[in-house]
Amino acid sequence: MVRMPARAWFNRAMRILVVNPNTTASMTTKIGEAARVVAHAQTDIVATNPADGPVSIEGHYDEAYCVPGLLQEVQRGVADGADAVVVACFDDPGVDACREVVPVPVIGICHAAMQVAVNVAHSFSVVTTLGRSVPIVEDLARRYGMADRCRRVRAAEVPVLALEEDGGAAATVRAEVMAALAEDRCEAVLLGCAGMADLAAELTAETGVPVIDGVAAAVKLAEALVGLGMTTSKVGAFAVPRVKPYAGQFVAAAPGGELDER
């Protein structure tokens, strides 16, 4: 295959698949809208969610059960022409597994938000949903080499699905953002749930500091990687899974099986 020059890649239309790994369609709609606001006019945003899995992702158990549906959506979306994938959950579930099964860039919104933050601020805090998510995000900060830049991970103690209701969830998140700025010595705040995506612009305007939505950050990074002609390395960690049989309900998911052929 002849590789196009980077400028040709950058100027062409592209399709970005944004997968909400939970099954709540209203949240998928919100996430898709947030992605389209920041996407280039030539970028086609396809927002989707699995049919099977948890209605929200709040802990390791939910993460584990969202991954099979996530992998299916990613494989189908790339087979249909997606140039990059955004996994729209701040826990970054299944990102590495997705990188094994597709060649295009796959970006988690936590990693993307942290990468953007350290380019516009010396330090940041994260405002997430429930306290059980705090150690998960702290672990990700360490994995991504961001622990020294992360002042604190805070929980607004708002269930994920409360962000879909016309209640006080947005006000509670706002109050936690204000507390982070007042108490943490942070210079930016990351919204630690894709369901908070619609709050970022207003909070940035109100506070005068970057309040970063990981969905928007991931979309712009995806556009940049596609523009550079980047694909996921298949040497080592993200090599294509070895062909082998799977048993029981996962027979069709075996590497080289039905899902890989779609």
Structural write-up:
The strands form two sheets. The chain has a four-stranded parallel beta sheet, sandwiched between helices. A four-stranded parallel beta sheet has the order 6-5-7-8, sandwiched between helices. It has two domains: 6-108 and 217-261, Rossmann fold (3-Layer(aba) Sandwich), CATH 3.40.50.12500; 110-214, Rossmann fold, CATH 3.40.50.12500. It is an alpha/beta fold. The radius of gyration is 18 Å and the shape is globular. It contains nine helices and eight strands. It starts with 5 loop residues before the first helix and ends in a 35-residue tail after the last helix.
- Residue share in helices? 40-55%
| Count of folded domains | 2
Sheet with most strands: strand arrangement: 2-1-3-4
Which CATH C-level class of the largest domain is it?
Alpha Beta
By secondary-structure content and strand pairing, the structural class works out as alpha/beta
What order do the helices and strands follow? HEHEHEHEHEHEHEHEH
The major β-sheet equals:
4 strands, parallel
Mean pLDDT: 93
Spans of at least 5 consecutive residues with low confidence: 258-262
Quantity of strands, as a count: 8
Percentage of residues in strands: 5-15%
Gross CATH architecture of the largest domain: 3-Layer(aba) Sandwich
Q: How far apart are the first and last residues' alpha carbons, in Å?
A: 22 Å
Shape: globular
Contiguous helical run count: 9
CATH topology of the largest domain: Rossmann fold
